[in-house]
């Protein structure tokens, strides 16, 4: 076996170590790379920015802890944006494995960051099983699906919900989604009730949602950590007093950039070694 | 900012994260332990979640607290109960009634959902104008050609010969580009998961531990 063959059969664990080190360095010493804004994210930001104080949105936490690194930053930025604009946020969760915990954590973060008030500026209605059924029923009456919030306070006693009966009373629904739940917000809620829908999705799911956006079924898409970092940047630009708050997606994009370079290097390296070994074998024959 | 020593939660999370990472070296008992803990905890969590967030506020409280007005909830309640009769072999057939209602409902919802919310709007989204300036027209043309050629690639009712062959070939290129984009996004997604765990290990566990142990 010649040197090229040996390099081609490099132990995968060496690659893991290189990726690990590549990811670790920017976490310890952030680089601070610039964030470029893309139209799908700008569209969501502009839609929220155009709302008036007192308008209401529904923010659906349709993801679990494993998607937190991608979707938590989106939730934080959107909640901060709404808090600064005086927009009411109605939090719900339709994802079983941890959605409601993610909502609780994000609202607690909002309390810490901007002193937002539960029940007055926002409400967390908690989780419901069987996503399409609650989605459909909320089109008639949200209270029939969520008779009380996550703390057990009855719907009618929550000030922020005054005057909000169904999707008709909301300006926008944003789903931070993993799996298929984001699609349901589009092909069920948007299609049947006409409310504008925006999506914040994991990177794995993002490509399919751009098709929905192109067909004008969604007003915009925040795709993966990149989308989250763009929204963080837009909020920081519009509200400079929020610049000091944590921006984990922006920091994460430093790591993404380094790790992607490592992966691109290994893809090119593997292909070059493949061609070299092929030529060597042909030459030997 | 003052750093506190990692608490028991951080220690457990860090230990389980490292157990999961150990699979990168090779399959081992620590990884399988973490995997089993995850499955067990997830299942227990889901049962508790369904009881507290759905069954109690939407079924038990209204049914038993206000039976006069909410008596109709007894129907879904009974359907839910008889679903478990499948564990009694002689009565297992009764559970099919619940399944029939469940499947029937979701087929009905899904049919409309797919047709009204996907097929028609997506087809409409492909019918694009070709007289809107050079660049937008070019973009629209790419979408139209992409959709048509990919559909032809998946048209198996006649052999891909004659004009169908190069058209299907173009469809393959569109598919390859789409797979490439998906793969790129998948890499970004997986790296994000790694970032999440490493950020936790560094900022929430290791850094406070080092500061606590050595000061500074």
Give the low-confidence spans of chain B: none
Structural class of chain A: alpha/beta
- Proportion in helices of chain B: over 70%
Any guess at the CATH architecture of the largest domain in chain A? 3-Layer(aba) Sandwich
Q: What's the β-strand tally of chain B? A: 0
Radius of gyration of chain B: 28 Å
What is the total number of structural domains of chain B?
Answer: 3
**CATH class call of the largest domain in chain A:** Alpha Beta
Report the β-strand fraction of chain B as a percent range.
under 5%
Biggest interface goes to: A-B, 59 and 47 residues
Question: Could you characterize the architecture of this molecule?
Answer:
The complex is a heterodimer of chains A (285) and B (216). By secondary structure, chain A is α/β, with parallel strands linked by helices. Chain A has 2 domains: 3-30 and 254-284; 39-242, Rossmann fold (3-Layer(aba) Sandwich). In chain A, 54% of the residues lie in helices and 12% in strands. Chain A has helices at residues 3-8, 12-28, 39-49, 68-85, 99-114, 132-138, 142-145, 181-193, 206-214, 224-238, 248-284, and strands at 56-62, 88-93, 122-127, 172-177, 197-201, 220-223. In chain A, strands 3-2-1-4-5-6 form a 6-stranded parallel β-sheet, sandwiched between helices. In chain A, helix 2 packs antiparallel against helix 11, helix 4 crosses helix 5 and helix 10 (224-238) runs antiparallel to helix 11 (248-284). The longest helix of chain A has 37 residues, at 248-284. Chain B has 216 residues and is mainly α. Chain B folds into 3 domains: 1-65, no CATH class; 71-127, no CATH class; 128-216. Chain B has 7 helices and no strands. Chain B has helices at 8-21, 29-65, 67-70, 74-82, 95-126, 134-153, 164-214. In chain B, helix 1 (8-21) crosses helix 2 (29-65) and helix 1 crosses helix 7. Chain B is extended. The termini of chain B are close together. In chain B, 7% of the residues are buried. Chains A and B meet through helix 2, helix 4, helix 6, helix 8 and helix 9 of A and helix 2, helix 5 and helix 7 of B.
